[in-house]
Amino acid sequence: MQTKRHFLKTVSMATMLLAAPEICTAQDTPWSDIGFDRLLVANTDGDSLAVRFRNGQRYDASNLQRLNWLWRDWRDADAQSPIDPLLFVDLALIQTRMSLDFGQPKAILINSGFRTARRNATIPNAARNSQHVAGRACDFNIVGVSPPLVVGYAESYGIHGLGRYADFTHIDVGPSGRRWTG
């Protein structure tokens, strides 16, 4: 399943690159921290990062580790787990498109990334098989943008798991087609 998902993401990105090359390369954005291969992101523990996680078709292992640290469960002894890089790809698509449409860089604020099973069990209404526990999800805000608008952008990219909440948006790279309101 992971191989098929990776193949589909690669085909989607290749199609997008061929269809609109002027917006799909990082150097075409007017800001060095925004692009389809990088993220401008912070977490609610006060850590922030501007990082290029992919170089062409290769992921940068060192920068993925930096993102894994940012996604850690700082509420549970800084526990961390590898995060599925496809999550970063989805976030970069949303962030870059919104930044270009708004005409200014839009930072991502992660409310919840990786969660330990122990902490996940303490969250009211959290799914027992949460994609957060698998390192495949995040709850986030785009600074200065309402969650309903963020959901619209996420929907336009066919995000696999999409949760609509009053004060944040959830996305994940789990099974495709899941939608809910919390």
UniProtKB/TrEMBL annotation:
<keyword id="KW-0645">Protease</keyword>
<feature type="signal peptide">
    <location>
        <begin position="1"/>
        <end position="26"/>
    </location>
</feature>
<dbReference type="Pfam" id="PF05951">
    <property type="entry name" value="Peptidase_M15_2"/>
</dbReference>
<comment type="pathway">
    <text>Cell wall biogenesis; cell wall polysaccharide biosynthesis.</text>
</comment>
<dbReference type="InterPro" id="IPR010275">
    <property type="entry name" value="MepK"/>
</dbReference>
<comment type="similarity">
    <text>Belongs to the peptidase M15 family.</text>
</comment>
<dbReference type="InterPro" id="IPR009045">
    <property type="entry name" value="Zn_M74/Hedgehog-like"/>
</dbReference>
<keyword id="KW-0732">Signal</keyword>
<keyword id="KW-0862">Zinc</keyword>
<dbReference type="GO" id="GO:0008237">
    <property type="term" value="F:metallopeptidase activity"/>
</dbReference>
<keyword id="KW-0479">Metal-binding</keyword>
<keyword id="KW-0378">Hydrolase</keyword>
<protein>
    <recommendedName>
        <fullName>Murein endopeptidase K</fullName>
    </recommendedName>
</protein>
<dbReference type="GO" id="GO:0006508">
    <property type="term" value="P:proteolysis"/>
</dbReference>
<dbReference type="GO" id="GO:0071555">
    <property type="term" value="P:cell wall organization"/>
</dbReference>
<dbReference type="GO" id="GO:0046872">
    <property type="term" value="F:metal ion binding"/>
</dbReference>
<keyword id="KW-0482">Metalloprotease</keyword>
<keyword id="KW-0961">Cell wall biogenesis/degradation</keyword>
